[in-house]
Amino acid sequence: MSSSSQATSPSPLANTVPRIDLSKPRYSQDTYWGRVRHFVELTDPRTLLASTAELQSAAELVRTYREGKPVAATTTVDDLWRAKQLVDASIHPDTQKPILLPFRMASFVPTNLIVTTGLLIPNATVAQTIFWQWTNQSINVAFNYCNANKTTPMTNAEMGGAYAAATATSCAVALSLKKVVQNSAKFSPVVASTIRLFIPYTAVALAGAVNVFLMRSKELRSGITVFDESGNEHGTSPAAGFRAVSQVAVSRMATALPSLTLPPLLLALINRYSNNLLERRPRLVLPVNLALISCVGLTTLPFAIALFPQRASVDAAQLEPEFRNKINPTTGQPVHQFIYNRGL
Known about the structure:
Blueprint: H1 3-7, H2 32-42, H3 52-66, H4 77-90, H5 108-119, H6 126-146, H7 156-182, H8 189-215, H9 217-222, E1 224-227, E2 233-237, H10 238-272, H11 277-280, H12 285-305, E3 311-315, E4 337-341
Antiparallel strand pairs: 1-2, 3-4
Helix pairs in contact: 2-12, 3-4, 5-6, 5-12, 6-7, 6-8, 7-8, 8-10, 10-12
Keywords: Amino-acid transport, Membrane, Mitochondrion, Transmembrane, Transmembrane helix, Transport
Organism: Capsaspora owczarzaki (strain ATCC 30864)
GO molecular function: monoatomic ion transmembrane transporter activity
């Protein structure tokens, strides 16, 4: 066989397994359950164990296969999907660069567990409370920045200003609402119980949402890049930026709900059905509580992130007027829907 015929021969993989589309997630993003299955893989902490060489190898395999070039004959469909999972969990879709490991979504629960330990310190002083709230909001800033849409880059000055505003405002919100809880004894028992039940979640959720909006404020002002179905860029849209940031803020609020409501309930049940073990051995409360928070967080995180697709679409009519008469240069057809990366 000549060298030219070898160069144009099909991939060895094509002879053994069906062709798959690695440009899209493994599961349909048009359904909530499909997105949940996708984000279960994306938030799998086991992806954090991959070495730099393994990540580079996975990225190379995905790139090679998508370009239609030959890959090893021993490569299976499962190998391809595992490589795709590692790439999606570790590499930013806009920059194609690895996301800092502590701030990948697979690290969301483990990283936040450190802060949770500090926030659960009993009888914390004002200084300790401020420190751990600042640490918590700083980590939120890091997650929001590392997983944001990167089509509208921020300068160092903009990042510094956004960080200061996000941490200061979020801490103020969280500390103010915590003060309300501390003063709840002044109210009737019913009102006090309601405050103690709902204010902690409200504080975390509201502070988290404020953090997202401030840290990604440039996307609101300057917009984010939108694409047609063929992948052609059509400019930046502040309306799309607002949709992206709002969707992430909602998912952050949803992320906090089970982690703040289920562990206390489970803790009470454990104590009740263990003959008041936690009351008799109070030192067990913190480790048991952290274990419950970890389990709940790892289990429910994909369900919160999956409220919206990461690669979202929006009707042209919902964007600025200049996007309503765009033509797809690949197909020559009018663009009725645009696609954007909402970030995570």
